[in-house]
């Protein structure tokens, strides 16, 4: 499930994301509030992978009661005003604030590009 207010309304971004998924994997594009309102209706047997555009969106979900305990952070591209903390992660002050709020909510945040790489605690990189 992709949780982001902008992506939920943008068919071009949705099409791009669907192209990289393996056949047979269903994807849903929901605004943040819809995720908050509906995630608790999922059956225990369901496996749900949440994808968000930034840590602020994850923080919104956590503050809204979505049970998130771990986040694999990746592909936060460099832009003006951001500093690179890992080969695939660049952050600005808004990102850092959101990560700190997630840490305070006891959400583990790590960077791990592939399973054979060791996970790096994002808080050690900030």
Automatic annotation (TrEMBL):
Keyword Cytoplasm: yes
Domain of life: Bacteria
Boundaries of every PTS EIIB type-4 domain copy: 1-126
Subcellular location: Cytoplasm
Database matches in SUPFAM superfamilies: PTS IIb component
Xref: Gene3D superfamilies: Phosphotransferase system, sorbose subfamily IIB component
One Pfam family it belongs to: PTSIIB_sorb
PROSITE patterns: PTS_EIIB_TYPE_4
Main location as per UniProt: cytoplasm
Cleaved signal peptide residues: none
Keyword terms of this UniProt record: Cytoplasm, Kinase, Phosphotransferase system, Sugar transport, Transferase, Transport
Organism expressing this protein natively: Aeromonas veronii
UniProt name for this protein: PTS N-acetylgalactosamine transporter subunit IIB
């Amino acid at each position: 499930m992709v949780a982001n207010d902008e992506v939920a309304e943008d068919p071009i971004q949705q099409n791009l994301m669907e192209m990289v998924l393996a056949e047979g994997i269903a994807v849903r594009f929901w605004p943040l509030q819809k995720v908050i309102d509906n995630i608790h209706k999922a059956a225990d047997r369901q496996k749900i992978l949440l994808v968000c555009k930034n840590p602020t969106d994850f923080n919104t979900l956590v503050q809204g009661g979505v049970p998130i305990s771990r986040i694999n952070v990746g592909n936060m591209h460099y832009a003006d005003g951001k500093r690179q903390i890992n080969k695939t992660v660049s952050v600005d002050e808004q990102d850092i604030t959101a990560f700190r709020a997630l840490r305070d909510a006891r959400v583990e945040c790590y960077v791990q590009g592939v399973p054979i790489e060791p996970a790096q605690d994002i808080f050690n990189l900030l």
